[in-house]
Amino acid sequence: MSDDSLRPEDFAEAAGAAITDAEGKSFAEKTAVLAENGLFGVIVAEEQGGLGLDLSFGIPIVAVAGKLQLRYPLVEQMLVASALAGEDIGAAIVGGEKTAAIAWQGSLEEGYATHATFVADADYVLVASGEGAALLDRASGEVQEDPSLDPDYPQYTLKLEGAATVATLSAEAFAKLKFKAKVLYGAFAAGAGEGAMDRAASHMAGRVQFGRPLSAKQAVRHTMARMKLLTETSYAGLQRAIAQDEFGAARDVDTAFAGAIGNSCFIIEKAIHLHGGMGFTWELPLHCSLRDVRKIDAAFNTGGVVKSIGKAFIAAA
Fold it and tell me: Start and end of every Acyl-CoA dehydrogenase/oxidase C-terminal domain (predicted)?
């Protein structure tokens, strides 16, 4: 699809409608709805069953997923479908016949992998193997639940002894997947923050104190303005990360990714604070977004990423 009139935000609107339609459905039903709307193949070439769009179209799609609190491995489906484009498994993932999760820590050689979400429902799981990665038949390995970060949608640890490999990725292909992952997960986190900000704005506008809405208070306005600024900064950083620099070289994504994660956590926590005591209740959905972002934070060791960025900055000075 090479029509220059296509706009990423238009796809975000369509994706939002599909995600809303999938809300409340089972894992299999969500898969069918999202596949029918073409979301898994957005960044897969047309000749390989996808829409043939670049990563700039993926950003707003996963952002709206974060904003609407989609509890489904949409990013993983997009990543594995793109990495295995042209193969039967890739085509099955694009079409929704198969699903894949990704374990971001551990490796096949170590015999275990961790920080995998939704893997209990997936057909395959991608784990590091050497410099590349291996796609494993999930049923051939032992899965252990880890609910410490999210009891509703836990992460999993996988024991990989005897696990069956069904496809492999080269070091180059795995590096590309990880680059795309940081862009898309950063966008998902930014969307989660944006959703929390919108909820806080609605609450502040409807909550009246001493005859005036809380949104009329200067301190609240300043906080909301900062939340909005950080949201826009996250999106701008991610869009910049996927564009070539002035010398035609690819940019590093780590700064934009770490910024998006940190900004999102700040925004969601401020939204909880702005809701007062009710912000800390289980019934208010803000905690869902915070746990989603914290799981990404832990899976990618964002603190370690920030330290590496700082060391590189100091060394270059």
Answer: 184-294
pLDDT in tens, 134-188: 999 999 989 999 998 899 999 999 999 989 999 999 999 999 999 999 999 999 9
Where do the H-state alpha helices sit in 130-214? 171-206
Distance CA 84, CA 310 (A): 34
Give the chain's end-to-end CA distance (angstroms, integer). Answer: 44
Count structural domains, the chain: 3
> Of 146, 169, 192, at which residue does a domain stop?
169
Work out the number of other CB atoms within 10 angstroms of the CB of residue 237.
Answer: 19
Range of the domain at 91: 1-98
Over residues 16-25, the mean pLDDT reads 95
Q: Are residues 165 and 181 located together in one domain of the fold?
A: no
On whether both 206 and 312 belong to a single domain, the answer is yes
User: Are 146 and 120 within 8 A, CB to CB?
Assistant: no
**Cα angle vertex 266, ends 264, 270, to 5°?**
115
Residues 177 and 272 in one domain: yes
Q: Is the pLDDT of residue 96 over 60?
A: yes
Look over the chain and give the mean of its residue pLDDT values, rounded to a whole number: 93
Beta bridge partner(s), residue 292: none
Distances (CA, A) of 190 to 69, 122, 126, 224, 257: 12, 25, 25, 15, 10
2, pLDDT greater than 70? no
Rounded distance, CA 107 to CA 157, Å? Answer: 11
Average pLDDT over every residue of 186-207: 95
In this structure, the answer to whether residues 230 and 299 fall within a common structural domain is yes
* Claim to verify: residue 18 and residue 111 sit in the same structural domain: no
Q: How far apart, in whole angstroms, are the C-alpha atoms of residue 121 and residue 19?
A: 18
Please calculate the CA angle 282-284-285 and round it to the nearest 5 degrees. Answer: 100
Instruction: Indicate if the pLDDT at residue 36 is higher than 70.
Output: yes
Single residue among 98, 115, 140 that ends a domain in this structure: 98
